[in-house]
Queue: 2 jobs
Job 1
Amino acid sequence: MGYSVSEENYIKAIFHLQQKQGKVTTNELSNHMKTRPASITDMLKKLKKRNLVHYQPYQGFKLSVTGKKAAIEIIRRHRLWEFFLADKLKFNWVEVHEMAEQLEHVSNKKLIDKLDEYLAFPKFDPHGDPIPDINGKMDSTPQVSLDQWSLNKTAYVSQVMYSSPELLELLAHHKIAIGTALEIKKRFEYDGSIEIKVQQRAPVTISETLAKIIFVHHGSTHQ
Amino acid sequence: MGYSVSEENYIKAIFHLQQKQGKVTTNELSNHMKTRPASITDMLKKLKKRNLVHYQPYQGFKLSVTGKKAAIEIIRRHRLWEFFLADKLKFNWVEVHEMAEQLEHVSNKKLIDKLDEYLAFPKFDPHGDPIPDINGKMDSTPQVSLDQWSLNKTAYVSQVMYSSPELLELLAHHKIAIGTALEIKKRFEYDGSIEIKVQQRAPVTISETLAKIIFVHHGSTHQ
DNA sequence: AATTATTTTTAGGTTTGTCTAACTTTTATT
DNA sequence: AATAAAAGTTAGACAAACCTAAAAATAATT
């Protein structure tokens, strides 16, 4: 009942491509996966037999409900491992992806659920992408790092990456926690630092380093 | 320069078998790996071409220096993941092996070294087997859990599994730390609890649960 | 609408790692 | 030492996942 590493990679790739376009073509997937079109067709027949895709020759394809479920499970694994690598092992988020590509194929439900628990059920990975929860549900509100937020627009803190005692101390000092509302008042081009207003308090300046690891969203659905 | 999952499994298996007997035979490896003898021969030719084994047809085989190095690297990965699963994710040591079998093939030197650091360079895995360090060196002193130690024989604490604040509190209360010398004075069959004497202090009784996760060795080479 | 270009599929081949069945070498037994 | 038994190897086949080259279907262009 498990899928091979190859099958999982196809499922994941189709999922990502169909997000934008609804249906995916052989050539699109071929480019995306750096695999020849003929191989795509081969695998598609296998995935169809396994009821993972809806596919008619020459007509493009998309994941079935089962396929989508599988994709979300794979994405959950990938993003939890990414979070682990960044938050616990202190890798920066550029290095993290490649390793997670391997780890995501270690498929043991209990392992992933315990990892999720250990990481305190994170909602976003280090790139800001949402992590599906144990039931496959994930946040749809896009999330960005604070340094990319626009001026004078209320932001809610949803996550802080790379937690360490030193970081927590700094955040506590500025009274910043998950859910805190804040606004960017000014940007200093020289060193990338920004002046922020946290709730009703007097404005403070924070470094670009800090701004980059504070993730925010605009909205009420989060808590 | 990397090895396939299959190659790694063969290397690891040969390493374990040759520990006891020096040389390994096709049938031994066949039984151990649950793979037909013909397949063993096939793979052995590949490993020989890669200079991982010394092998003459019909004469048995053993790992070369390169092969041994590879084996130790694989074992390092396996045991570090086992430690992670037990210590951080709170799996018990029976469940841990199977998952580590998959994780051990995720081979990224930096990942493993960071994991090692994150786990605070553990010297033994949850089964009591030594974990090779970054240079491939590992402790050779056998290590057992305290509940299997004999009466009136000095034991030195080398490791405590499944660390948690509650556990640390209990250990601190009994003045037990890594390196502490102690002796078992009495065993209570009824509930498996044991009476121990920690250094010069008055004897105390500890539960079987605790005794099972305290690992000890007999000797000076440890610190 | 006919022709050309593009996309997709099919047909047949390769590599990796396994298998069974047949054969060879080594070991054990009489 | 000859023969039987056991162990190990070779030969040929198969599935998975890829490939190239050729054919077929669809889309674009005149």
Job 2
Amino acid sequence: MGRQDTEMLKGVLEGIVLAILASRPAYGYEITARLREQGFTDLAEGTIYALLVRIEQRGLVDVEKVPSEKGPPRKVYSLNAQGRESLTEFWRTWSFLVERLERLHDGKE
Amino acid sequence: MGRQDTEMLKGVLEGIVLAILASRPAYGYEITARLREQGFTDLAEGTIYALLVRIEQRGLVDVEKVPSEKGPPRKVYSLNAQGRESLTEFWRTWSFLVERLERLHDGKE
DNA sequence: CCGCGGTACTGGGTGTTGCTATGTACCGGT
DNA sequence: ACCGGTACATAGCAACACCCAGTACCGCGG
């Protein structure tokens, strides 16, 4: 992926992470790995950690430190009520965008 | 629209403008007005002008100055070959994103 | 036993982008 | 003569994803 793609991720990536956490709690390293498997091959590791810090500071997630068998303790994030609200809001905005762009793609205006 | 929305526009807005120019040439003031009509109510005027300057510098559009009946001359932008290529690339990335997010929304992973 | 690779998190600095705010300029109607 | 709508330009700001380097913990092979 190139320059344009990384710009397009802005804002969207947060929604993606919230959506992942909505299905079940997860920690940074795991999220990065999963996203890379799912096609975001160039995703930088530091990006996810920074994003997690941000959404934690905004109170969208709860954090629990869990010891790992294979390295330093994991910070497991889980979506709380405010996070679910934010996710709903994200889907609303996302749907709006998708709808607008579909119209543009079909050349309706 | 709020904070999240403006972040989500990043990168996408360029694709939107390219798509608009693909259907027919247009000038900045006109593009801003059209986008506002189509739901991007909070779109700042300066944003479009800055964006047009950028895509011009990257050689994606051709520019022609056309006198207006109601004000200063318009700078009419039209998509050139390179711009069409860039637009195709944009749609490819966009489709990828839409596909990923659809999967997340349907809770498939 | 010691380095090495995999796991896991952290932090500083950079570039791109959209927003805010302000300024310039042209025109017609009152 | 002024005001509002048309039309463009730009300097400064904040947010975000990136790059890069560092820290730390573990098990394994030499």
